[in-house]
Amino acid sequence: MRPPREMRGGAHGPVPPRILIVGEINPDLVLRGDAFPAAGKEVIVDDFVMTLGSASAICAMGLARLGDPVSFVGRVGADPWGEYCIDTMRGAGIDVTGVVRDPALKTGVTVSITSSRDRALVSFIGAIGALRAADVADDAFAGASHLHVSSYFLQEGLRPGCRSLFARAHAAGLTTSLDPGFDPSERWGNDLLETLAEVDLFFPNDVEVRAITRTDAVPDALRRLAGGRTRTIAKLGALGCATLADDGRVLRAPSYSVEAVDTTGAGDSFNAGFLHAWLARRPLEECLRWGAACGSLSTRGLGGTARQPSAEEAERLLRSSA
Q: Which CATH superfamily is domain 18-36+44-314 in?
């Protein structure tokens, strides 16, 4: 399925359609070093930063950096962590009027221990699990062309109503996308497959797509998820990304070589790049390359949002690698 709405004209050219993101918000405390801690031991890291985290918010920031209008619906605690997140998003031009500050909750926090090769995460869920589909009023869809949700398995409150939320979005004329994120229980419930009936774009990584389909090979996993309205785009890290063409061929795009500092949020920046291109009605292969470019470029700094690319930076990388 392609985006149903054309970009509207404005005084300075086409105005990109607004993207609605419904999801979790939390800060990341990122510690960078070459050693991971073991129980009962301490390691010393080389650097530290506090930055906006959470898959949904990182994707929103990536889209805003690319020049796409974004609005966000979420829930945080009425605490300094929540205020930090809201102020950061507002500073990036994201409409945060749909973010609720709930004094009964604590804002979630993730500690990321990362190197240029891999990362480990420790999360306090807090407000992340409190958002419900009913918190998204119908008027949130007004003026939007697309709805995106990340962290399906972490958002325990949103998960039961996620399919109905996507159905409401479709009824309002929006296209939809979902990034499942990792399932900490590793049960990979069948309710996700039912939810995909209302999803246009599905963004699992290689671990997730193989676990969800219970198969070892990514091409087989893609084929098992084919046949409905959903296009699955598998994010394969250093191996790039893959999806099925309309004729059943596996389409691939490579990753791009950059001086990587931290891989936190690279998949969420990939989502932003792909959506940016897809909503502009670019060819599928080009959408894959935009996703790969934005994911790769985002690894240049600590945290998921510090070095997300502008559209000009992504285009420059794409041209230089053509």
A: Ribokinase (3.40.1190.20)
